Amino acid sequence: MADNEILQMHDLKPAPGANRDRIRVGRGEGSKGKTAGRGAKGQTKRYHVRPGFEGGQLPLYMRLPKLRGFKNPFKVEFQVVNIAKLAEVFPQGGEITAADLVAKGVVRNNAPVKVLGEGETTVAFTLKGVKASASAKAKIEAAGGSVSED
């Protein structure tokens, strides 16, 4: 090809040594024949041993215990707060919502809250959107407060 000629598609060819024929194993002694890259005699030479096969020994997946029990995907996990903690964080009492508890760092966001009855209170709490145990409800109402779960 001369220097002033334009390179054409039909002039292109791969670089020397770039294209090699693939090795066709097990096709006679002349080309990677005989053992075909599988080594000497034995179980792994003779086609296939499935993954996890331990030569007849009891395999790992059978030695381990089975999964037991049941995990309910719809179980609701409440974050608990005791009355003592409420009295400590809100000493003046007043209306308390789940958002107020999150703002004060008492509970995490995005999980329902339940107030339990450990501790005492003298100030009146008005709990809104928060569940309460029977003992907590009794103590809050005795102090002049109220609980509404909606």
TrEMBL record:
Record carries keyword Cell membrane: no
Domain of life where this protein originates: Bacteria
Pfam families (UniProt xref): Ribosomal_L27A
Signal peptide per UniProt: none
Membrane-spanning parts: none
SUPFAM superfamilies registered for this protein in UniProt: Ribosomal proteins L15p and L18e
Listed GO CC annotations: cytosolic large ribosomal subunit
Swiss-Prot/TrEMBL GO biological process terms: translation
Xref: InterPro entries: Ribosomal_uL15, Ribosomal_uL15/eL18, Ribosomal_uL15/eL18_sf, Ribosomal_uL15_bac-type
Record region (Disordered): 1-49
GO molecular function, one term: structural constituent of ribosome
The Large ribosomal subunit protein uL15/eL18 domain, residue ranges: 80-147
Keywords annotated in UniProt: Ribonucleoprotein, Ribosomal protein, RNA-binding, rRNA-binding
Composition skew (Basic and acidic residues), residue ranges: 8-32
Record text on subunit structure and interactions: Part of the 50S ribosomal subunit.
Role description: Binds to the 23S rRNA.
Family of the protein in this entry: Belongs to the universal ribosomal protein uL15 family.
Name of protein: Large ribosomal subunit protein uL15
Naturally occurring in which organism (per UniProt): Bifidobacterium callitrichidarum
